[in-house]
Amino acid sequence: MGGPLSPVSLSAVLLLLSGGSCSGKDYVLTDVGGLGRVFDGIGGLSGGGATSRLLVNYEEPYRSQILDFLFKPNFGASLHILKVEIGGDAQTTDGTEPSHMHYENDENYFRGYEWWLMKEAKKRNPNITLIGLPWAFPGWVGRGKNWPYDHPDVTVSYVVNWILGAKQYHDLDIQYVGVCTDPRLTRVHLRF
């Protein structure tokens, strides 16, 4: 009986010692200092070569039911945002997303499944926000090095081509593009 108090017992003792109530100031919401941040919505991520890769091969009606649960407004998850990986022909997390440009003069905007997923999301929610994010780049973007940011003109062109291809070939408007997932990226690299 003389052992240490459990966390629950200790919490009860502290609550009793404090008078059993929480004393504090009221928290007042105000917009005096400005409106602050805006809630853009709840989003999902497709990338890393695995998160939604198998979905395209699910049998109907299961595939459509899952897509409805994910993207249909006021139903299921009702996602407002979809961020997809801009494929780079490289092992990222769990797999490889194909690039729209295997090499500099090669453009094919039908490789991979992310185009399909974005179109399915838009079909269910025309107002969904689409975001692209490169996890990796083909070797030619870095001119033979595993660091594409030493050649910002090439890197920017590669990403812009993906955005333009999304519109031209799939009628998809990409609202935002992330820079990369590499923590070594600095402000110097963002000047492009």
Describe this structure in words.
One of its GO terms (molecular function) is galactosylceramidase activity. Keywords: Lipid degradation, Lipid metabolism, Signal, Sphingolipid metabolism. Belongs to the glycosyl hydrolase 59 family. Residues 1-24 form the signal peptide. It comes from Nothobranchius furzeri (Turquoise killifish). This protein is α/β, with parallel strands linked by helices and 192 residues long. The protein has one domain (36-191): Glycosidases (TIM Barrel, Alpha-Beta Barrel), CATH 3.20.20. The protein is built from 4 helices and 4 strands, in the order H-E-H-E-H-E-H-E. It has helices at residues 7-17, 62-71, 114-124, 152-170; strands spanning 43-46, 81-86, 129-134, 176-177. The chain has a 4-stranded parallel sheet. Strand 1 (43-46), helix 2 and strand 2 (81-86) form a beta-alpha-beta unit. Helix 2 (62-71) crosses helix 3.
DSSP helical segment count: 4
Number of strands: 4
Our count of domains comes out at 1
Shape: globular
CATH topology: TIM Barrel
Beta-strand content: 5-15%
Question: Mean pLDDT score, rounded?
Answer: 83
Give me the secondary-structure category.
alpha/beta
Catalytic activity: a D-galactosylceramide + H2O = an N-acyl-sphingoid base + D-galactose; beta-D-galactosyl-(1<->1)-sphing-4-enine + H2O = sphing-4-enine + D-galactose
InterPro entries: Aldolase_TIM (IPR013785), GH (IPR017853), GH59_cat (IPR049161), Glyco_hydro_59 (IPR001286)
EC number: 3.2.1.46
Pfam families: Glyco_hydro_59 (PF02057)
